[in-house]
Each structure stands twice: as structure tokens, then as C-alpha cells.
Amino acid sequence: MNNSTSTESELYTLKCVQHGHINSEKETTTYCTVCGSVLEIEYHISPENPHQILVPLKTRPEDPIRTNKTELKRLDKLSAQYDGNVWVKSEYQNPTGCFKDRGSYIEVLKARELGADAICLASTGNMAASVAAYASYFGIKCYVFVPEYTTEGKLAQAMVYNAKVIKVKGDYSTCEALCRKFAESGNYYLAGDYVFREEGQKSMSFEVIEQGGDDFDYVFVPVGCGTNFGAIWKGYREAFNQGLIKKLPKMVAVQPEGSSPVVKGIFKKEKIIETRVQTIAGAVAAADPVDFYKVLRGINESNGVAFTVSEEEILEALTEMAQKEGIFTEPASALGLAAFKKYRKEFGSAKCLFVLTGIGLKDTGVVVRHSLPSPVIGNDLKAIHKFINSGYLDIQASAWGKWQGSPFGNLKLEPEQAKIFNDYVDSFNKRGKILTEKELEVLQSMVFDEEPESDQLIQVLDYDVRMRKNGLVNATVSLGIKGKHIDAKAKGVGPLHAVITAVKSVTDTLIPIEVVDHNVEVLSPAASSLVVVTLRLSHKEKQFLVKSVSTDTIEAGLKAFVKGLALAGKA
């Protein structure tokens, strides 16, 4: 401890969880330098004010970003529905939309206190945004390392907080290992699920107590790496030792069935590292639960329990909270309610608290992937009534999260709509394409906004695209217009841009139309997957969406553009 700061030596000891080795924060803020175990902070003097949260900092300014407590709320409708007493701590109300902000605040201040030149971390979501927000506010540079497959959408929040994003070839483990080497290569503070983050996230427990929640029987925590669970239990233990509460709650760890190394490890009483995890609750998808032993200790000390829930149970709980209580969370936040429902007899009339870790806007892709698509109906009242009477909207509502067999058996299609659907299926069957249930559902949703072939102003007979050395694409599209055959040619920055530009070079003289935006959705990971292309088009200062589907992106894009021309021609 010779190199410890005065704060460290006077207020607390930094020691490893498994063997009690003493460490110095000047040498490590992540793992024990002796055995590699995770670390914890043990305070050895109490502050003058017994109600103060013990914090490992020389000075701690009030959090300038997180200025309000997150809501502690009873779920009256769900309590009545399940004859229980269930509450939520709305951690999604933190500044960046998740619980991570409590820990990021302390980590960034500790990085400054230790004189780091920058802070770095490996992440693809919540933690990246949270650390970047506090680093930006407190004026310290932030490097975020992400795997190569990470989408720009996931990085948007971190980037707006001025994070320096570095994409690395390989998976998350490769990325994390490189980030650690980077931290060691300079005066960089490595942020993540480590000891000082725990000291920030434990503040949730104190806050619950301050809000009058000092009598909970059970606290349900979604578990991935286990850091937040360990932090919440540490907060309750410290509050109990200070006399702030008279009893400790029982801790409940909840994981998805497809990502449950902590639950498996608790039953075996040893840490388990999975080779692969898979769940819609991406925020808790952790193969290597770094803080497993903190979770195990919390379960043992509190006489708690650990449960797993299925993907469908997560989706059902997510939907219930949204529709019954008006609370839209990320899938991980639904784990508590899902476990409460599944093991209802275990809890009786006990007062239960669910920790809602993140806002639903963090992962809207889950909703999209598990919902039936919404067709675009023509601007015609008769068409609207036909669509409503088809039963599609009722099927869409009841099919949320359930992909067990096609839900469209009772769908009422008009004869022309049924013909369009059957023609679609026949065309793909002739190509040897076997359609998945998801692809069939998308096709059935699209028949409501299809234009009959006879209404189309042009026909695409063939196309050819060739890459050029300068990066541009040369496209030739053979068109049929009013019985004439025309070859349209153009260059573009990509194949889809090139072919549409070629078509526009001919059709703009008939109907000028502009492509405002486009989106490409691949329906499955298979090589022959259907592709849905959506174009946002403008004509006469009005914008509208058109979609088409094919096994080929270019073909789907051309079909969508031709549909758009037909719609513009009727305007």
C-alpha cells in the first residue's frame, strides 16, 4: 500500500473478493495484481454523517447531469392482476437512459483524480454512451473500442457525446483484450464493470431507502456480468450497517435461459464461463460474468434465489408493463416481472422491487423483429375499411413475440390480394427458394399496398451493373415503356443508386420523382434470404413510402421505384 493515495489509505482498503489480497488503486482499478480476482472496496472509517453514501473519492461534486432521483413506483394494475405487491425502481430515467450513469459518474471522477489522460472501454451499447456522456462533461477524452459488426445506430448516442470510436476486427472478446492493452500502453483509465463502478451503482439502494422503500422483502435484479447486482447488495449492506434500515431484502438474480452462466454457477457454487450466449435481452448477454462471486455472496448472505426465464416470458412481461402500466423498457428490464410471474407462489404477499435497468428506446429492434410489419394502405377510405375487416390488425396485436406457426390462417384477403400473394410465393418457389415463416408473413403484409401490374407505367426487363476502378458503378437497365424498349444507362456510388439513377434518366421526363431515403432489411441470415427495400420518395413536394421484396437487393429496389412511379402518376 506504499503507493496508495491519502484517500485510499485513510478511508478504505482495496482488496480482492476471493482471497483478500490488498491492492493499490495506483497499480490497479480492475483486477487483483496477485491472483486476478475481482476487487471490492472495504471502508474502515465512517463519515460524520451516518446517512452519507461512502464514496472512494477525495472530493465529490454533486452529479451535474443526474439531478433527480429515479422514480420508485408501485405497479397498481399488475399488483391487482397477480394479487401481489410489486414496485419498480425506474433506472431508465437516468440521463442516458440506463442505470450505468451512477457508476460512470464515479469512474470518470476517479479517472480525473488519478490524473489519467483519457478513459477507455470496450462496449457496444449502454456503457459506451454513459461513460462518454460523463467524460464529455468533465472534459476527459473517451475512447470506445467496439467489434467490427457493431452498427452505427448502436454507436450514435456515444458519438454524440464526442466518444472516439474505434472499430476492431474480431468479436467482443478480441475487442476487450485490445482495449486493455491500449490502457496499459499509456496513462489511460480502463472503465467497465470494475470496482469503482460498483461504488457508484450502489447509490440506487440508498436512494430507494431515502424514498421510503426501506421494507422491501425481495429485490429482483437482471444479471449479466453481475456488477449491478453486487453493487445493489453492497449498498443495502452498508445502509444496514449504518442503521438506515432494520432488515435486509432477499436478493433475486434473474437471467434469460439462453444466457445464464450466473444461475448455473450459483447451483454449482463455482463460476461458469459459457462458450456462447444468445438472448433478446442484449444488455445482460454475458458469457463471462466477471462479478459472479459478488452475486453468489449476495444470494447466500441475503438467503436469496436465482431464476431463469424464457424469451417468450421476457416478451410477455415487456408487453404487460407497457400496456398495463405505460412503462416501455429494454428487454432486460422485463426479467424481474417475468420471474415473478413464473414463480408466483414463491413470493406470496411479499413486497417486491423490480430494477428497471434501461429504457425501451435503447433496443427498438427487438420490438421490430418480434412484430408483424405494418402495411402501407392507399389514401382511400374504402381500402382502409377493407384492411380493418381483413383482421390483420387483430392478428398483429395477438402475434407479438409469438413466431410459433404462421398467425395468418384467418386473414381475409380480397381475391386480387390473394392473387398477388400467391404470385409472390410461386415466383420464389420457381427459383428454388424455400420461404421461412417470417418471410411469408412479410409477403402477406405487403399485399395490402401492392399496385396491380396494369397500373405500372414502366416495366423493368433486365439490368446489368459493373464495378469501376474509381469506385463508381456503371448500370444499364432495359425498360419497357408504352410498348417501346429503352436501355437506360448511368453511374452511381453503389449498385442500387446506379440502377435507380439510370431509370430516372428516362422517367424524369414523364414523372419527376426524387429518392429522399432508402432502407434495406434482410429477413434472415441465410444466403438466399428475402430482402425488403423501402424507398422514401418525393413528388410535387409530397413524400411517400414504397416497399418491395426480392432475393436480390437491386431487383427489390427497382420494383419499389416502379411502384413509386405508379403512385406518383395517380397523384
What does this molecule look like?
The model is unreliable at 1-6 (pLDDT under 50). The radius of gyration is 28 Å and the shape is globular. It has helices at 6-11, 76-81, 100-113, 126-138, 152-160, 172-184, 195-201, 203-210, 227-241, 261-268, 292-302, 311-325, 335-342, 364-369, 381-389, 392-398, 415-430, 437-446, 495-507, 553-570, and strands at residues 12-16, 22-23, 39-43, 72-74, 85-90, 118-122, 141-147, 164-168, 188-190, 218-222, 250-256, 305-309, 351-356, 458-467, 473-481, 484-492, 514-522, 531-539, 542-550. The protein has five domains: 1-45, no CATH class; 72-96 and 198-364, 3-Layer(aba) Sandwich (Rossmann fold); 117-186, Rossmann fold (3-Layer(aba) Sandwich), CATH 3.40.50.1100; 371-445, no CATH class; 453-570, Alpha-isopropylmalate synthase LeuA, regulatory domain (Double Stranded RNA Binding Domain, 2-Layer Sandwich), CATH 3.30.160.270. It is an alpha/beta fold and 571 residues long. α3 packs across α4 (126-138), α4 runs parallel beside α5 and α9 (227-241) crosses α11 (292-302). A hairpin with a 2-residue loop joins β18 (531-539) and β19. The termini are far apart. It is built from 20 helices and 19 strands. It has a six-stranded mixed beta sheet. Strands 8-7-6-9 form a four-stranded parallel beta sheet, with helices on both faces. It has a three-stranded antiparallel beta sheet with strand order 2-1-3.
